[in-house]
Amino acid sequence: MCSPGRAPPGPAPAGDLPPEWETDDERMAFLFSAFKQSREVNSTEWDSKMAFWVGLVLARGRRRGVVRTCLRELQHGFERRGSLPLGLGTVLRELLRRGKLQRESDFMASVDSSWISWGVGVFILKPLKWTLSSVLGDSKIPEEEEVLIYVELLQEKAEEVYRLYQNSALSSHPVVALSELRSLCANVCPDERTFYLLLLQLQKEKRVTILEQNGEKIVKFARGLHAKVSPMNDVDIGVYQLMQSEQLLSQKVESLSQEAEKCKEDARSACRAGKKQLALRCLKSKRRTERRIEELHSKLDAVQGILDRIYASQTDQMVFNAYQAGVGALKLSMKDVTVEKVENLVDQIQELCDTQDEVAQTLAGVGVNGLETDAEELEKELDSLLQDSTKEPVDLPPVPQKVLDLPISDAELEAELEKLSVSDGDLAQKTPSASPEPKTALGLNL
């Protein structure tokens, strides 16, 4: 990407562009035009156009998942109907000023990148320029082919590489070969250059350190998510060499085992063909191979035993450091605490509690408004009220003796209604009344 010999990528898919990209030609013509020389001419239009392109540029980098870009790649990526945005250079300069983007050369110059073959020249020639640009600021619009880095995306992917290592089998020891780490991060890093940039970011955060030993680069990781890596020492190099020896011995044992199995098959085939001497030679070769396997097994056991002891000593050292830190913290927290001070404090608390109890008892013996009530008189008055209440009879309705038979049919209800009507009629004849209308209504309707 961003190299003269490589074709730039095509325009962005329609789904990644804002709705007005294809519908509003007038607004897009304004957005594709160049920025004014000064923002003061029309700050509203300037800010609107800047906000549009800043969001689009950052979203494109995050969507593609690449940490590197350049002006030429972005211009062709945002091509619309044969037109290229003329103000992208100003937008990239603003992103550089905000710290959202950074020149790759400046980034590499800020970290020790001498272990990278293509970074040696950058490391030697760029520190002065990087120092001046970081102090004075860089107002220059980047060149078309100048490589820029998405700062936040680079940090996120570096964190992903670190977590990927922590969750892998390689984390059994902090030192690992660069080639093994590259294979582990193949899905995160699309190319070797990006992989090196992620390691430089981790190196900048002091979570890895890289050393070249006997023509091979080895990486040392910090132990823990928030720990800082310590410089690589002779112990780390020695452990790494032991691990490499263990790996080589295991591979050799596997190869000899296959060779011994092949000799066994050749001996069996020779016996079937009646070639006794050939079968004996194959068996002798099998015996020699098996003896070599036994010797390698003993060496492998010795190497693994040494590694186990080293791992155990590292664990013991970690526990010792934790104990030491705990003792120091406990001493600091108990610095001003003594048995005499604690006893004196407890006596003061007890004395204050006793005083509080006496005050409460004194306040409880004082009546409100100067009126004191005797508890015995109150109890006598309560007894007299209870006696008076027991003497008064309580009028309660009589308890019904007859149990109602439920349910009652409609015929029984009509018969009972007729009886009530007859009895009401007799009662009406015996009682003088000014109007006969109630009797007629009662006889007809009820």
Distance between the termini: 105 Å
Quaternary state of this entry equals single chain
Q: Tell me the overall shape.
A: extended
How many helices?
A: 17
Average residue pLDDT: 79
Biggest sheet descriptor: 3 strands, antiparallel
Strand arrangement in the largest pleated sheet: 1-3-2
Structural class: mainly alpha
H/E element sequence: HHHEHHEHHHEHEHHEEHHHHHH
Please report the total strand number as a whole number.
6
* Uncertain stretches: 119-132, 430-446
Estimated share of beta-strand residues: 5-15%
* Helicity, as a percent range: 55-70%
Radius of gyration: 48 Å
Task: Please summarize what this structure is.
The protein is mainly alpha-helical.
Describe the structure.
The chain is mainly α. 63% of the residues lie in helices and 5% in strands. It has 17 helices and six strands. The protein has helices at 20-23, 25-32, 43-64, 71-77, 88-98, 104-109, 120-125, 127-136, 151-166, 178-184, 192-204, 234-272, 276-333, 339-364, 375-391, 410-430, 437-445, and strands spanning 68-69, 101-103, 148-150, 175-177, 208-213, 216-221. The strands form two sheets. Strands 1-3-2 form a three-stranded antiparallel sheet. Helix 9 (151-166) packs across helix 11 (192-204) and helix 12 (234-272) runs antiparallel to helix 13. The N and C termini lie far apart (105 Å). The model is unreliable at 119-132 and 430-446 (pLDDT under 50).
